[in-house]
Write a structure and sequence with these properties.
Strands 1-4-3-2-5-6 form a six-stranded antiparallel β-barrel. It is mainly beta and 107 residues long. Helix content is 5%, strand content 44%.
């Protein structure tokens, strides 16, 4: 009941970055200046977009930092700039269904 009253801890956002190496799933996302950055979320998934010619992905960002537009993502041991976009790239109807429906193709 506490979470329902206080709201969600994380907000789903999408991101774009010019980096060609993908960040690992679960990689840290930092907000603030490079020298004083603090971890504000994690990468959920990422992939190269041939159409955009950029790395794109979904991320979970702490709700108090969801208004940021520019962040840093840990890639191969160093921080790389990324731009946050509104909402996730893909939203499936079954994402919030409880219990999750069983896909007949998986049986």
């Amino acid at each position: 009941m506490v979470q329902k009253n206080s709201g969600h801890r994380f907000t789903l956002r999408s991101f774009e970055m010019d980096e060609k190496n993908p960040p690992d799933d679960g990689a840290d996302i930092f907000g603030g200046a490079d020298d004083g950055a603090v971890a504000i979320g994690i990468v959920n998934c990422s992939s190269w977009s041939w159409g955009l010619e950029k790395m794109i992905g979904n991320a979970s960002i702490e709700s108090e930092h969801a208004g940021l537009d520019e962040v840093w993502i840990q890639v191969d041991g160093s921080r790389r700039k990324a731009q946050l976009r509104r909402g996730p790239l893909v939203t499936l109807d079954r994402r919030s269904q409880v219990p999750a429906p069983i896909d007949p193709k998986c049986l």
